[in-house]
Amino acid sequence: METQKLNKGFAHWVRQSTTARMLMIGFIILVLLVPLLFIKDLIRERSLRQQDVVTEVSGLWGKEILFMGPILKIPYNTYQESTKIIKDAKKVITERTKKINYAYFFPSTLAIDANVDAVKKDRGLYETSVFTSEMNFKGAFEMPDFGSKDISADDVLWDKASILMKTSNLKGIKNQITMQFGERPLVFLPKYQENNKDIYGVDELVLHELHSGTIKGFTSSTTQLSFTTQMTVNGSQKIRFVPIGEKTTLTMESNWGDPSFTGSFLPEENGQENVTPKGFKAHWKVLQINRQFEQAFFGHLPDLREFSFGTELLVPVDEYQKSERSAKYGYLVITLTFLVFFLIQTISTIQIHPFQYLMIGLALVMFYTLLISISEHQNFLKAYTIASVSVVGLISLYSRSILKNRKFVVLVFTSLTALYLFIFVIIQLESYALLVGSIGLFAILATVMFASRKIDWNQS
């Protein structure tokens, strides 16, 4: 008998006590964190799948383009002396050995004109950007200076000089590369690199070498040699160049309306005035004084990829990134929605069962699965609208059977609609997301404080 009275007393306390209701709501929120975490993992999994598809398409069409060249490569003789002591003859012999090294000289002027024809490639539910670029190079080399390194002119092997170009994308090249070097036509061929390693070691973006063969007739009396060449290449996502000219200029024109200018140098005037939804045109000018390397290297050509610049052709909307950002606000949506129902329950005599809170919470969690699945087939705005309207409508209809009062149902509907609109605005913003989010949360806090000012929190 006593046990039954205690059980009834505890049940009555749970139904009537504000503290008990708050504890119960807190526990349900903790339970709902589990499916929210699963949804975040689902978004990451789908996003990684998208990256795999992008990598697959890029591998078939042509990887991103990184280009460095042309570079004048001239061999020269170096000498090393060593001494050898012969004990039996009691004398010292000096031996002189000869070794061939290479000097690398960059052009004094380098002008690049790149026309990039970009398209979207779809693979199932996913898409990425690919392009075909026609690139024209022209410039000139000054007479190489070996005197600064005390290398005798007789030790320079002028007749074995060659032109070197380095690119990350041999597979995408669509024409035989021929350079007009002075009055000589030069044909470029690749050089075998064991295990796909270049002189810089292993990297995600290996620079393959193209060689011209020897430049016959090139001598120390040559004052200046001009060059022109043209290359057509398929690539994906990015196109970049290393500014090896003493004066390097790049003009890039494309039909892609969402470029991102990347690398160590931005276009003149940031290039933004020439960007339209139908394409862009940008111009770069980089001088030797703007970058941290000289015009000639002896013995070893260093890795200069960190000085590259160019353009990334972005796919305009990343649906998974926006879905992930919206899922981060899942805790806020559940907490504020439960808070609205809690305040309604507290200021009225309406009883809301824990099971009903759980159903409302699961409906809120379902919003994110709807958003992810629909956004894979529609744009994010349509997906967000359909998912939010479905969830707000479902919870409003469900609350009508719980609250029995039309004004409370209108309050729930208005609160949820405003909340989803607020989160959508924050997701779209980038620079002002923190500011707008902070102001919005402050307004929500002020509203809750105003609505709860007359509640007697001292009830047991």
From TrEMBL:
Keywords: Membrane, Transmembrane, Transmembrane helix. The keyword Cell inner membrane does not apply. The chain crosses the membrane at residues 20-39, 329-348, 354-374, 408-427, 433-451. InterPro entries: Uncharacterised_IM_CreD (IPR010364). It holds the Pfam family CreD. GO terms for cellular component: plasma membrane. The keyword Transmembrane applies. NCBIfam families: PRK11715.1-1. PANTHER family: INNER MEMBRANE PROTEIN CRED. This is Inner membrane protein. It comes from Croceitalea dokdonensis DOKDO 023.
